[in-house]
Amino acid sequence: MRVTLRPRKPRTIAVGAKYSTSEGPGLTASWQHRNLLGRAHTVDVQLTIATLTQELDVGYRFPEFRRPDQTLFSKISLKNQDTDAFEEKSLTASLGVERRLNKYWRVSAAAEPEFSIIKDDTGRRTAELLSFPVIANYDTSDNVLDPTRGIRAQFKVSPTAGNADGPISFLTLEGSAATYRVILKKPQTVLALRTRLGIIEGEPTAAIPANHRFYAGGGGSVRGFGYQKVGPLDASNNPLGGRAVAEIGAEFRIRVTETIGIVPFVEAGNVYGGGHQGFGSGLRVGAGIGVRYYTAIGPLRLDVGTTLNRREGVDDPVQIYVSIGQAF
Questions:
Q1: How many other CB atoms are found less than 10 A from the CB of residue 172?
Q2: How confident is the model over 40-56, as a mean pLDDT?
Q3: Which of 2, 251, 284, 307 is placed for a possible disulfide with 265 were both Cys, Cβ 3.0 to 4.6 Å?
């Protein structure tokens, strides 16, 4: 037996695009080198240019760091964000270690210093923060962009301390999970369910920098509502964010042909300024239907959603979302 090995090309260039009526258009371009120093060291550079967010990320991964199942990673992010909730200019760095425990579990721990200038309903302030996020990921799904079976879950604990016009410290706890199951073979129908829960302890909502609060609403959250529009609003109907969030959602992914699918969906959620007080109550509900065009790189997604308990003068009758990949 004769075996010939050849290294694959080490570089990749990728582009992506999305659009929604509440967030506007967005473009993403990235460049990756998977073997920079000859030992599978990976460098990623990604640029996002969108209506609400402009961001440059530079990341580095060092595999087999001190042991075969461990990776050293670092990242620097420069962000400018302007939403109805807040304006942000920030520089964030991270340095951490990720370890694969087995086929399905990965855990990571990192240190993340951040310098940001935030402007929200309380005015303008500067924040210098240091976070230590610990994240556990569980994944048994069969496909990254179009799963038909399995479970995905993430659990995050992130203590944060620093200064934001005064010393602050708070603890963020957040968990999300999704499950996928084929319930009909012809036409193939996949039931997809998801949930997200989070809470922040340690400071009142107003003391927490706006970019660290919870928000809900939009294409990756509760569809049918505008971006960040689920939850408490100020007198001008701008989102305030909160210290707790709860979301649930369900989709029926019906593959009509090899290339075309339809996806009815319903989602609900809310954000709570008082933390755990009233947690899970007053859910805002959105529903709609989507179309999927299946390609070799994953489905192209078009969703049209509406609110089932619309607030007069706040929520638009219809929201439209376009992107690559399933909603979750």
A1: 21
A2: 95
A3: 251
